[in-house]
Each structure stands twice: as structure tokens, then as C-alpha cells.
């Protein structure tokens, strides 16, 4: 069973591992970061309105995170990562996508968008199956948008 929960220090520590894994780092377009930068990010979360994040549990096991960033009155960029690779390919991405769509609707947004590398066929397929439209491809990065209304 998938649960979306508060992004706690436990998720922060797991995210250090996950986002420093080369394969996950490449897929998520994550730049290099230090422990200090990560701590500053975590400490900034309670006061932010432009960034929302949830931890993802699968059968009570922390497996990843998802959220919205660059939030405006009308839209937001959404993102996700499953850091525990043994859970890849099990349909969890589809459930996360449904959650993100509903969360954005609950926030009153008009649309959400994902960014991924053009070579990331798994992500592009998920977005298209979820009802997204490829809006543009620029410098090898795909922007896929989902209209909420």
C-alpha cells in the first residue's frame, strides 16, 4: 500500500543516498549538492509556498519522494523519484502521478508539468499515459503538461 506522508528527517537522510546514486541522479536531473545545502533546503520547507514535498511509503517502507516546485497561482512543476530500485516497474509511478494530479487540483491549480530528459522513455510513457501532452522539447529536455480543468 502506498502512502504519502510528511517529508521527515528520515526521508531527508534516505534522499542523500538516493540522490547521490548516479543512475537516480541522472534520471532526476539532480545537481551536485552538499550535506549543508541539503540541511538548508530541509530547514526552509516549513516557510515555503513555492515548494511542497511528500515522502512516499510502500508497505510502511520509505521508498521515495514527490512534490511540486515553482508553484504559481496557475501551475507547478511536479517531480518524483523512487530511490529504492527494487520498487521500480511495479506501477508505483502511476499511483504517484494520480496523487500529484489530485494534490494539484486540491490546490486549485490549472495545470502541472513534468520535465525529463528526452532519452527517458519510461517517464515520457508514464506522462503520456496519464494524459499529459508534450508541450516542447528543448536542449534534450521534454516538458509535458497536464491540464487540470
Textual characterization of the structure:
The chain has 149 residues and is an alpha+beta fold. The chain has one domain (2-110): Gcn5-related N-acetyltransferase (GNAT) (Aminopeptidase), CATH 3.40.630. The protein contains 5 helices and 7 strands, in the order E-H-H-H-E-E-E-H-E-H-E-E. The chain has a 7-stranded mixed sheet, sandwiched between helices. The longest helix is centred in the middle third of the chain and has 15 residues, at 92-106. The protein is globular. The mean pLDDT is 95.
Short key terms for the protein model shown above:
149 residues; alpha+beta; seven-stranded mixed sheet; 5 helices; 7 strands
In short:
By secondary structure, this protein is of the alpha+beta class. The protein is built from five helices and seven strands; from the N terminus they run βαααβββαβαββ.
Looking at the structure, the CATH topology is Aminopeptidase
Which residues sit in consecutive blocks of at least 5 with pLDDT less than 50?
A: none
Major sheet strand order: 1-2-3-4-5-7-6
CATH superfamily: Gcn5-related N-acetyltransferase (GNAT)
Q: Given the C-alpha coordinates, what overall shape results?
A: globular
Instruction: Kindly state the percentage of residues in helix.
Output: 25-40%
- Could you say what the CATH architecture is? 3-Layer(aba) Sandwich
- Largest sheet at a glance? 7 strands, mixed
Through-space gap between termini: 28 Å
Mean pLDDT: 95
Return the string of H and E elements.
EHHHEEEHEHEE
Radius of gyration: 15 Å
**Count of discrete domains:** 1
What structural class do the secondary elements suggest?
alpha+beta
**Which CATH class applies here?**
Alpha Beta
**Portion in beta strands:** 25-35%
Number of helices: 5
Counted beta strands: 7
Amino acid at each position: 500500500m502506498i502512502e504519502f506522508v510528511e517529508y521527515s528527517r528520515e526521508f531527508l537522510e534516505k534522499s542523500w543516498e538516493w540522490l547521490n546514486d548516479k543512475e537516480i541522479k541522472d534520471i532526476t536531473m539532480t545537481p551536485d549538492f552538499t550535506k549543508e545545502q541539503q540541511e538548508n533546503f530541509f530547514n526552509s520547507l516549513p516557510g515555503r509556498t513555492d515548494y511542497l514535498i511528500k515522502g512516499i511509503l510502500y508497505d510502511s517502507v520509505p521508498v521515495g519522494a514527490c512534490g511540486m516546485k515553482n508553484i504559481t497561482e496557475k501551475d507547478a512543476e511536479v517531480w518524483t523519484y523512487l530511490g529504492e530500485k527494487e520498487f521500480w516497474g511495479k506501477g508505483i509511478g502511476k499511483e504517484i502521478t494520480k496523487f500529484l494530479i489530485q494534490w494539484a487540483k486540491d490546490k486549485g491549480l490549472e495545470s502541472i508539468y513534468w520535465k525529463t530528459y528526452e532519452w527517458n522513455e519510461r517517464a515520457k510513457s508514464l506522462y503520456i499515459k496519464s494524459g499529459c501532452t508534450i508541450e516542447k522539447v528543448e536542449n534534450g529536455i521534454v516538458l509535458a503538461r497536464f491540464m487540470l480543468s
